[in-house]
């Protein structure tokens, strides 16, 4: 359920863009992100820090987009969010804490160097996503950017998680086979 809520604002933006325009879609994105926070609080009794960061950036850049009637602000939003995540991942790693390890380390007992490599991989993916979003946003059409934002960046994230799973596979706990003598 939480994963569905994560994609809800993006899906709402995408649909509103193709029915109306980027400005209505931006207002819908702000509203859908606000609704996501409310639902996270009601259903899970907590809102993670990353959700607050996303909301603040979406609200700020969405408001600038609507106020100045300039889509450049909303186009920058994704790159800024990815840059923030890049800095957070590396900042935590610098002080000796791996965010991927905090998220998955209780379930997957991998060595510290593995978690460090995953952190760097996630950070590199964030940097690639930020740069790609910026390039597409300011060099290609608005339609191309919207499609890239929804499908390209989501695809990049999906590929990152597949690589993470493959890299962690040998450290994942194995299911014990039932005793054949019983």
Number of distinct helices: 7
Q: What average pLDDT do the residues reach?
A: 92
Give start-end ranges of low-pLDDT stretches: none
Helix proportion range:
over 70%
Instruction: Give the N-terminus to C-terminus distance in angstroms.
Output: 39 Å
- What is the gyration radius calculated from CA atoms? 19 Å
Walk me through this protein's architecture.
Helix content is 80%, strand content 0%. With 182 residues, it is mainly alpha-helical. It folds into two domains: 1-70; 78-172, no CATH class. Helix 3 packs antiparallel against helix 4 (72-94) and helix 4 (72-94) runs antiparallel to helix 6 (112-139). The longest helix has 28 residues, at 112-139. The relative contact order is 0.10. The model has no long low-confidence stretch (mean pLDDT 92).
Task: Please sum up the structure shown.
With 182 residues, the protein is mostly helical.
Write the layout of secondary structure elements.
Layout: H1 2-19, H2 22-44, H3 49-68, H4 72-94, H5 99-104, H6 112-139, H7 142-168
Helix pairs in contact: 1-2, 2-3, 3-4, 4-6, 6-7
Which key terms come to mind for this protein?
single chain; 182 residues; mainly alpha; 2 domains; 7 helices; 80% helix; 0% strand; globular
């Amino acid at each position: 359920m939480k994963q569905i809520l994560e994609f809800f604002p993006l899906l709402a933006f995408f649909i509103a863009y193709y029915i109306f325009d980027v400005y209505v879609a931006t207002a819908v994105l702000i509203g859908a992100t606000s609704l996501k926070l409310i639902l996270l609080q009601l259903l899970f009794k907590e809102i993670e820090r990353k959700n607050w960061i996303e909301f603040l950036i979406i609200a700020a850049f969405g408001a600038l987009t609507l106020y100045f009637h300039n889509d450049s602000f909303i186009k920058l939003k994704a790159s800024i969010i990815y840059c923030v995540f890049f800095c957070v991942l590396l900042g935590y790693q610098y002080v000796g804490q791996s965010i991927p390890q905090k998220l998955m380390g209780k379930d997957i007992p991998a060595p510290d160097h593995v978690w460090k490599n995953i952190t760097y991989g996630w950070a590199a993916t964030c940097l690639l996503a930020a740069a790609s979003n910026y390039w597409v946003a300011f060099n290609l059409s608005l339609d191309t950017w919207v499609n890239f934002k929804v499908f390209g960046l989501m695809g990049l994230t999906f590929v990152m998680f597949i690589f993470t799973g493959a890299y962690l596979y040998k450290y994942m706990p194995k299911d014990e086979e039932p005793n054949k003598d019983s």
